[in-house]
Amino acid sequence: MMHPRRLDELVATLGDQDLSLRTAIETWPATLEPVQEQIRLAVTFTLQACTGLRSAPNSSNPTVEAYRAMRQYSRALEALAALTETVPAVGRYFLEPRFRDDPVLLERLAAPPGPDTGVFHAGNQTSERGGFSVYVPPWYDAARPVPVIMALHGGSGHGRLFLWNWVPEARSRGFIVVAPTATGSTWSLMEPEIDSQNLEAILARVRGRWNIDPEHMLLTGMSDGGTFTLLSGLSVDSPFTHLAPVAASFHPLMLAVTEPERLTGLPIHLTHGALDWMFPVEGARNAHRTLAGAGAAITYREIGDLSHAYPRDGQGDVLDWFAGSGREGS
Questions:
Q1: 9, 205, 290, 303: which has the highest count of C-beta atoms within 10 A?
Q2: For domain 110-324, which architecture applies?
Q3: Sheet bearing 118-122, strands edge to edge
């Protein structure tokens, strides 16, 4: 999966699905005419993603081209998500599979969306840096504090695109997702105060507008975003209650930013692929040993067939952990 030596295998999994998709939109049912603009836009981005993946193995930098192609997939999800609350089939797609037939959830979603819900962007066009995007589920109730997830994209990524990794889970569980964009091309790993201060300012804006549960604030991220999750989240003054880095780099010197009172009992969920070619898995194993030895409450998940990629199918487990864990006595 997204391994430089296995890109041909990844492309082979496409089969003729993109061809079938092209054929399907040539015959447009009359019943779909009211929503055809958004669906055609989603299809266009999906086909661009497929084309990019097919050409990646023969390019001068196959891995970069493959990641670039997958950005089009995120744009396709954004286009399709505009129909989530009006087209039942789309709404069902934007739910965790295990909740798609949950009668309580379906009843909640059948009601009109609440005020101040949906997707919001603040200075976060894909040409902009330092802004953020927010998803608030339609059944958000301002009278009830809800958990918040701050999700950090990987190097050279963008929060507006990374947001869509979390929307089905947030919509299913009633969580708020915040997806910031790094102020530079990636997170300020050498100068953490730059992006850390921005994250704190973003969180303050979110908490000023929505009712956030102070006991459940998750900082998570992929690759450089995962590394920054540790670097910023271990800081003594970090406001986050839970950390969940994915495919992150780790160095014991990261502990220099923290103190025992911050680290002891801090819930941390580490996820890493055994085939990670960018940040080898031994680094994650070392992080597991070091952080556990320093007193953190570590949950470690190593995925045998995963390389340097984001394992969306494991997010439900991360959120089960997030909802059920906390510091003792809190």
A1: 303
A2: 3-Layer(aba) Sandwich (3.40)
A3: 118-122, 132-136, 176-180, 146-152, 212-222, 242-246, 267-273, 297-303
